[in-house]
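Changelog excerpt

This revision adds worked examples to the README so contributors can see how folded entries look when concatenated. The first example is reproduced verbatim below.
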Amino acid sequence: MNAIQEERIKGYFLTAAKELIRSEGLDVVSARNVSERAGYSYATLYNYFKDIRDLIFSCVEDFMAECREFVANDMPGNISGEEALIAVSKSYTKFFVQYPGIFHLFFQEKANKISTAKSNMNAIDLLFDSLVEEKWKSIVEQKKETDKQFSQTQEFHKLALHGILLLFFNNRSNWDYKALINQVRVVTEFAIKTL
């Protein structure tokens, strides 16, 4: 079997697992279910992934790339500073509203169901940071703030945004989509003002 064919078969397993996660959640992702959807025997899956968590984390990596691409494509042109930070925060929120199963996978599933490596879980935790880091640096340079204040504010912003999403997805708020996006703006503006 050549390398191109191997990558294609690996891609079938990855696509099947991502479809299951999106449509039914992580609980239905098993070697048998993924293999059946991919059209191969479950033993074949282990030729491409060391275990089911290896496959799941490959899905996570793809989903993170999709999130980055979504945010990049959703950003309006010619904005910077505070408006750019607000726009990224809104786009990130829109992505997860569009794909709530991915939010659940990233932030509500137990870590040991996704990966055995702590560094893999750190990659999920740093996704939002990677999207807003340059925006925050631009704001900090304008305001001439200290690194300590900046890192505390950036952490507050990330935690508040994810808290808002958790409330929204768990029906703990009375927000519709428009109200959710407004809350994201309010929290982001508040974080900026604390600098």
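The second example, added in the same revision:
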Amino acid sequence: MKLNLIYIFCIVLVLGCAKPPVEEMDRAREAVFKAENDANAVQYASGTLARARDALKRMESEAESKNYENAKTSAAEAIAAAEKAINDGKVSAQRAGEEANSLISGLRTEIDETTRNVASARYSQLKLDYNAIDKAIVDAHSMTDQAEVDQAAGRNQDALDKARSVRSSLNDINQKVANAVTGRKK
């Protein structure tokens, strides 16, 4: 009986002396804060960033419940997810920049080709709304200018979105010209 009381006392003493993993928890908070303030992580790795935040919340909850081993594990998960979010954001931003550069570099040529198609349609007196088409071409030039400004400022996703919009608009114009040609042949 005396041995059992000593054993229970030792367990209570060990559990009572367990301390929260303060250093790990501080590193986890810092890592998640850093990821939350990394524009690329926020924009391109939001899912991974959300996992880091969830792990941080679990860590806090486990620490409050004095489940320090679980808190330590959650802290490690938060750190790993935050670092992954930053890395994934960086890689995705670079990829978006390369894609934006590739797309933007060809837009002026596409605008010129579309302008020539419209000029041919006009010369052939195809029935089209040339005022609307001319406005769409002017808008394509303006949006391309804006995409180049965004790209130069490092706003790759904005540049990419604008470049895609220009390409879509040009495709619509070319499709209208093609439909007018087909309609005339009937």
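Reviewer comment on example two: The radius of gyration is 30 Å. The helical segments are 2-17, 22-36, 39-44, 46-64, 68-123, 130-152, 156-185.
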